[in-house]
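Pasting as-is:
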Amino acid sequence: MGSNIYFPPQRPTLKLTRTARAPEFDEAKNADPVPAADPLGESTLEESWRKLHRAHELLAAEQAQLTDERNMLRAREAGVKQREAAVAVREREATEREQLIVAATPLSKPHESDRAPSAVARLTRAPMEIARAMLGGKRQSS
């Protein structure tokens, strides 16, 4: 293959000149490099941050509510303990008064009618009481 290639004797000079740019080129350069349908775009990121802040606000509100409830329970328990102490004092005072009343009251002798009859009295009266019960007579008090 012996073909010869002809080259001109003079070397071409490379010269760059600035010319007016085409308007399509400027629009393409200024266009948003991230397409609008990008799942990791700014709007998705902002929405995620908003959700995070909202969740944090909800958590803070729940914590505040739990703290309030805990404080109310502590106050209620303190009130119950105070009432228990007051009741214990009143019970102690009532017991002391009862003991004073019992100590101040003289022992009374039981009435004769309250006493049980002796064994001899029961044995001697028993036949008569049986007869009265059978005959329907009235019992006389002795």
